[in-house]
Amino acid sequence: MANTFLTPSVVAREALMVLENNLVMANLVHRDYSDEFVQVGDTVTIRKPAKFTAKNFAGAIVRQDASEGSVAVKIDRHRDVSFEVTSKEMTLDIKDFSSQLIAPAMRAIAQAVDEDLLNECANIAASVQATADPSDLADLAALAKTLDAAMAPLDQRRLVLSTAHKYRYALTDNLSKVAYAGSGETLRNAELGRVYTLDTYMDQNCPDSLSAAPGTAGAYQVTGTAGATVVALTGVSAATATVKKGDCFILDGYRYHFTEDKTAVSGAVAQVGIDCELVKDYTNADAYVVSKPHSLAFHRNAIALVTRPLALPMGDDRAAIISGNGLGVRVVYGYDQDTKKDTVSLDVIYGIHPGRHPGGKTGGVKQSAEPHGETERKRMGWTT
Q1: Do 182 and 318 share a domain, yes or no?
Q2: What phi and psi, each to the nearest 5 degrees, are found at residue 138?
Q3: Taking the mean position of all CA atoms in its chain, how far away is CA 295?
Q4: 265, HSE (Cβ side, Cα atoms, 13 Å)
């Protein structure tokens, strides 16, 4: 007999808690949530704070428009984990059910959300070239300078380091000095703490090549059809440049890795495998090439994660939505009469908007040292 306490609401509440505990990037950015039901592909409007200019008073005030601005965000991400459950598993208490099933499922969704946020910011940020073997924190100071130049507020500045950058900087002599790290406690916790106005974190989902020796192709265009796991490359940066298994590129905020080594012929690769299906058709689309580890510095308001609830299916006694702290999770119980098996489905829906309002800024260490000029894009940056 199934445990009557394992209702969809109980599972959804547990799933939301696990999701929030496993997020990194999504806990550092602005989050926008309302009870408005939407579907994938819908566009919603989020508010931007009013912007004012301090006028010189010369005998009469100048009244400024105090109305808030707005920005449209497309809700285009729908992440789902569904799995079969046995009658025995449904008799577990919520703690055991969570550790065996909910936690692994929500960790997968949390990884996808963090990866999506980092991907969306990858090719719009001003950038700083990291030194190959840093003996000081000049790279991080340059990131703080990038934010300073954009007049980003000093509070709520973030630095999200890749695993490679975290350990590279953590091993420098200067970081062992409390003057750099901000406090001795941060070192005891093996974290960087607050460095040059930046609250520092590590995210394993930062873009990077998975190849030990990345290929030499620094740029290319991608052609492929939606659902395909092979693509063609044109406009390769050198006539005989290479791509390696594990090399990474980003298109429309989605990350792909090559599954095989290829060498271009006259600047083109006729066919090369990728690790997941293309989300749509592409013809000579410029890819953002990731050949080095990326880390990102930004102000919280530079990036918005916009979430909305999904509608409950008919017979909603077997489904529930739980929301809190700008996040929402839907849980749906299903039963397949053909296979006589129960299923549990957990899903979230969201959109991402880099550059929410003029209070935000990003900067980072990445391979390109070419900054972008738009005002919104000046609020973030990468380092490699």
Answers
A1: yes
A2: -60, -35
A3: 12
A4: 6
Residues 189, 195, 197, 202: is their CA dihedral positive or negative?
negative
Parent domain of 201? 1-205+293-384
CA distance 350 to 308: 6
- Classified as helix, coil or strand, 383 is strand
Task: Give the single-character DSSP code of 88.
Answer: T
In the predicted model, what is the mean pLDDT of residues 311-332? 85
Q: Is residue 49 part of a domain?
A: yes
Enumerate residues 6+ apart whose C-beta is below 8 A from 365. Answer: 127, 128, 129, 130, 139, 143, 165, 294, 295, 381, 382, 383, 384
d(CA 98, CA 76): 28
The predicted structure's pLDDT at residue 176: 54
Q: Which of residues 267, 290, 313 is at a domain's end?
A: 290
Q: What is the DSSP string of 104-149?
A: HHHHHHHHHHHHHHHHHHHTTSEEEPPPSS-SSSHHHHHHHHHHHH
Mean pLDDT across 330-338? 89
The per-residue pLDDT for range 118-161, each reduced to its tens digit, is 998 876 655 665 555 555 677 778 888 888 888 888 888 888 88
Is the separation of the CB atoms in 33 and 343 below 8 Å? no
How many structural domains are present in the chain?
2
The CA distance from 4 to 321, in Å, is 18
Residue 311 DSSP class: P
User: Which two three-digit tokens encode residue 184?
Assistant: 């001795």
Q: Is residue 1 scored above 50 in pLDDT?
A: no
Query: Which one-letter DSSP state was computed for residue 101?
Result: I
Q: Which residues contact 246 (CB under 8 A, 6 or more apart)?
A: 209, 210, 211, 212, 214, 257, 258
For residue 297, tell me if it sits in a domain.
yes
Kind plus residue range of the DSSP H or E element containing 291? none
If we measure between CA atoms, which residue out of 132, 201, 128, 134 comes closest to residue 174? 134
Structure tokens of 330? 């839907």
- In whole angstroms, how far apart are CA 287 and each of 147, 199, 251, 328, 353? 26, 31, 6, 32, 19
> What span, in angstroms and rounded, lies between the C-alpha atoms of 258 and 92?
41
The amino acid present at 153, given as its one-letter code, is P
CA Rg, the chain, in Å?
23
